[in-house]
């Protein structure tokens, strides 16, 4: 359980910093109550984590050998992909992810009343975060982790990792948003995925 918790915590914390959902939380917190934004964001991420772990547990019903090799292949493939993407990025802060987050928030604002109630703010934060996270690499990685590890450990670690990133985004995101190097985070994430792939291969040997 401790291994699953640590894996979930490290994987999510490194992958989510500077991600689209991170900047969505930053932008929303600049215009609305931080507490409401944090509550909506973390509720969406916790729901996504639980759903991903359930999918992972469903996949665990398959023959163990298939799950084992699929887990290794996913982690190594993600690691190589992230390292390649990171090598092509500019050392400066990547503005593309920020612009995507801004566009998503702007579109959501147009569809909601000008005078927003606490429930409307919570709903906006929840829906935007959930949709941005759906199909993301962290969701697939969580499914892979849950398929071969303790589900409670993965869930607890992943939710805590999401909570840390959401808190950073909501509390101090405006100050650090322009200082985050997407390239460095992508390279670190790539290395982390490769390490998990190697560890999974060694444990199954």
Provide an overview of this structure.
The protein is mainly alpha-helical and 205 residues long. Helix content is 84%, strand content 0%. It has helices spanning 2-16, 20-31, 34-59, 64-88, 95-111, 118-133, 137-148, 151-176, 182-204. Helix 2 (20-31) crosses helix 5. The longest helix is centred in the N-terminal third of the chain and has 26 residues, at 34-59. The protein is globular, with a radius of gyration of 17 Å.
Q: What keyword list fits this structure?
A:
single chain; globular; 0% strand; 9 helices; 205 residues; 84% helix; mainly alpha
Secondary structure tally, helices: 9
Please tally the β strands and state the result.
Answer: 0
Give the overall shape, derived from the CA principal axes.
globular
* Secondary-structure content class: mainly alpha
* Average residue pLDDT: 81
* Parts with pLDDT < 50 across at least 5 consecutive residues: none
Query: How far apart lie the N and C ends?
Result: 20 Å
Radius of gyration: 17 Å
Classify the beta-strand content into a percent band. under 5%
Helicity level: over 70%
The run of helices and strands is HHHHHHHHH
Most strands sheet: none
In short:
By secondary structure, the protein is an all-alpha fold.
């Amino acid at each position: 359980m401790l291994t699953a918790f640590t894996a979930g915590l490290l994987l999510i914390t490194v992958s989510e910093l500077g991600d689209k959902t991170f900047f969505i939380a930053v932008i929303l917190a600049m215009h609305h109550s931080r507490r409401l934004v944090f509550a909506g964001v973390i509720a969406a991420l916790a729901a996504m984590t639980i759903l991903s772990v359930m999918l992972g547990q469903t996949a665990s019903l398959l023959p163990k050998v298939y799950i084992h090799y699929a887990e290794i292949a996913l982690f190594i493939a993600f690691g190589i992909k992230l390292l390649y993407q990171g090598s092509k990025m500019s050392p400066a802060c990547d503005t593309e992810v920020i612009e995507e987050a801004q566009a998503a928030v702007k579109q959501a604002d147009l569809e909601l009343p000008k005078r927003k109630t606490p429930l409307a703010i919570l709903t906006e934060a929840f829906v935007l975060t959930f949709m941005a996270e759906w199909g993301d690499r962290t969701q697939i990685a969580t499914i892979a982790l849950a398929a071969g590890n303790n589900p409670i450990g993965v869930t607890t670690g992943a939710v805590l990792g999401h909570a840390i990133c959401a808190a950073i985004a909501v509390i101090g995101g405006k100050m650090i948003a322009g200082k985050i190097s997407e390239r460095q985070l992508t390279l670190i994430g790539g290395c982390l995925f490769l390490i998990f792939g190697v560890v999974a291969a060694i444990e199954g040997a």
